[in-house]
From TrEMBL:
InterPro entries: Cadherin-like_sf, DUF285, Ig-like_fold, Liste_lipo_26, PKD_dom, PKD_dom_sf. GO terms for molecular function: calcium ion binding. This is PKD domain-containing protein. It comes from the Bacteria. Transmembrane segments: none annotated. It holds the Pfam family DUF285. One of its GO terms (cellular component) is membrane. Residues 235-297 form the PKD domain. SUPFAM superfamilies: Cadherin-like, PKD domain.
Length: 603
């Protein structure tokens, strides 16, 4: 009976299992084969489309699945033109969408899901647009050397298609730098010095042209033509200069020096007009703008230009000195900012004593004048002040009669020549002589200063000067050294050989001379009265000067202010006479124990 029941139970379970495994009309689609319908894609796309732009969407239909297939690029021509973001098509390489390069982008994409895949072809036909086109041929020109600044070289005329905008022009590069400039579409001379055949046989570079966001670059080559610069015949006797006017009916003025009355000269104005019997300053008007060669003959003792005058800027070049007997060069070429030097002869300076401000402000001047005879000159104040480009050898000049060289090279930022052979025994003032001459590092160690010239501000802001020991200078008769090395940031020489016993004023002498740490421990300061700011901000200085005799000094205001390295023992200084000592050691390393204790410093 028990066996029978077991058999019946087994049969019943089998029947239930059989029915549970039969077809279920409600079963999931995932058990069925996935079907993918993937349509080819054919679209038109404008050229010059930006990278990242969506240009189309693939349509993919899936049967028997709720999942999304994965799309991948199988191939494309040209390679890398598009990429996929899901089922959207995105521009990957904008340069491929250029009708002139590719008229279409084509390829194949595969859609894959659950092991099933289908492919579809794509073709993007690129539409040709009316693009902005700029054409300008490379520029080849030639000009004669010694051309004036502002002279037109060539007018640029780029052709622009499919745009109403005027093109703009820029200089991309040029060799030598700064030779030319653009005035609108006119390429013109910027630096007349660059147009010297002996220096540059050609000027080269590139110009950019832009219109409506489209740009091209063209090359330019300007050949500099060598001309015969020899002046012959009657012209060899003339003082010849070149002048430039920039507008119609513009005039130039030949300025004379009111200190002289012996004028009687003739001027060929270079436009067919000649004026004779002139005895004073004269003016001439030119009908047309241009560059004119002006020739002066006769009695013409001096030419003079006023500071910062518009007229001075019109003078472009000295071409020839001629046989004129000059009597003064005071202010001769003052503020002639465009002046260059083409003369091969030398001026007769045998009667010239005054060269005050002769080339002051002549920022383009760099003439070779080292062979001039200046032996009778006494005044060389400010001769080369603000001559930005001047850097010629003057070591052979005979300056033995010069008495003042005040400000001679003020802000002559390019000048850096040895002047070691100069005889300066008669000079009484060198005040500010190299002030702001930031390149100057010439040797002047042999100078004889026994005449005791004023050395105030002599090397102020001469930031390169440290060449040729000046320790052997005879300064025994000098009384003024105020601000002598102020801001001379490179200077660091031993000056212990100096006899400064007659110097009364050393105010700010080494102010901001940040490298100076030269030995001056043995100086005799018997006559010194003013030490105000003497080592102010001389951040390296820390020489032992504890034995100095400062018993006659009255002013010690700011003496070591900002001298951040200085901490010598000055407690033994005899400072009974000092009445001014405010900020004596402010910002220095001096400790209280090393400070003076007498006079103004007494507790």
């Amino acid at each position: 009976m028990k066996i029978a029941n077991t058999f019946i139970t087994t049969i019943f379970a089998f029947i239930i299992l059989l029915f549970s495994c039969s077809d279920d009309p409600e079963s999931s689609n995932d058990d069925l084969l996935v079907e993918i319908e993937f349509a080819d894609l054919n679209e038109n796309v404008d050229e010059n489309i930006a990278e990242g732009t969506v240009i189309a969407t693939f349509t993919v239909t899936v049967a028997n699945s709720n999942s999304t297939p994965t799309l991948t690029i199988v191939e494309q021509t040209p390679a890398g033109a598009i990429r996929l973001d899901g089922n959207t098509v995105v521009v990957a390489d904008a340069s491929a969408f250029d009708y002139e390069t590719n008229t279409q982008i084509s390829g194949q994409v595969r859609a894959t899901l659950n092991g099933v895949s289908e492919t579809a072809n794509f073709t993007f036909s690129i539409n040709d647009l009316n693009e902005v086109e700029i054409t300008l041929a490379d520029i080849t020109e030639q000009v004669n050397e010694n051309i004036s600044a502002g002279t037109e070289i060539v007018s640029l005329g780029a052709t622009v298609i499919n745009s109403d905008s005027d093109p703009t022009y820029t200089i991309v590069s040029q060799t030598p730098a700064g030779a030319v400039s653009l005035n609108g579409n006119v390429l013109e001379v910027a630096d007349a010095n660059a147009f010297d055949y002996e220096t540059n046989t050609q000027i080269t570079g590139q110009i950019g042209v832009t219109a409506d966001g489209v740009s091209i670059t063209v090359d330019f080559t300007i050949a500099v033509i060598d001309i015969d610069e020899t002046i012959t015949g009657d012209d060899a006797d003339a003082f010849i200069t070149t002048w430039r006017t920039t507008s119609s009916n513009e005039s130039i003025t030949i300025n004379t020096n009111a200190d002289f009355s012996n004028y009687n000269y003739r001027v060929d104005w270079g436009d067919g007009t000649v004026s004779e019997g002139i005895t004073a300053t004269t003016t001439h008007e030119y009908a047309n703008s241009g560059t004119y060669t002006v020739k002066i003959t006769g009695d013409f003792p001096a030419i003079r230009n006023a500071a910062n005058s518009d007229n001075a800027a019109k003078l472009q070049a000295i071409e020839n000195w001629g046989i004129i007997e000059w009597e003064s060069m005071s202010g001769a070429f003052n503020s002639c900012t465009n002046l260059v030097y083409n003369a091969s002869d030398t001026p007769d300076l045998s009667r010239v004593e005054n060269m005050l401000a002769m080339f002051s402000g002549a920022s383009s001047f760099n003439g070779d004048i080292g062979d001039w005879d200046v032996s009778n000159v006494t005044d060389m104040r400010f001769v080369f002040r603000n001559t930005d480009t001047f850097n010629q050898d003057l070591n052979d000049w005979d300056v033995s009669n010069v008495t003042t060289m005040q400000g001679m090279f003020v802000n002559a930022i390019s000048f850096n020549r040895s002047l070691n052979d100069w005889d300066v025994t008669n000079v009484t003032t060198m005040n500010g002589m190299f002030w702001g001459a930031t390149s100057f590092n010439g040797n002047i160690g042999n100078w004889d200063l026994t005449n005791g010239p004023d050395l105030t501000l002599m090397f102020h802001d001469a930031t390169s000067f440290n060449n040729g020991s000046i320790n052997n200078w005879n300064v025994s008769n000098i009384t003024l050294m105020e601000k002598m090395f102020w801001g001379a940031t490179a200077f660091n020489q031993n000056l212990n050989g100096w006899n400064v016993g007659n110097v009364t004023n050393m105010k700010d002498m080494f102010w901001e001379a940040t490298s100076f740490n030269g030995d001056i421990s043995g100086w005799n300061l018997d006559s010194l009265i003013n030490m105000e700011g003497m080592f102010d901000s001389a951040t390296t200085f820390n020489v032992d000067i504890s034995v100095w005799d400062v018993s006659n000094v009255v002013v010690m205001t700011r003496t070591f202010s900002g001298a951040s390295s200085f901490n010598q023992n000055l407690s033994g200084w005899a400072t009974d006479m000092v009445t001014f000592c405010t900020d004596f050691a402010t910002g220095s390393a001096l400790t209280n124990v090393n400070l003076p204790t007498q006079g103004c410093f007494a507790p």
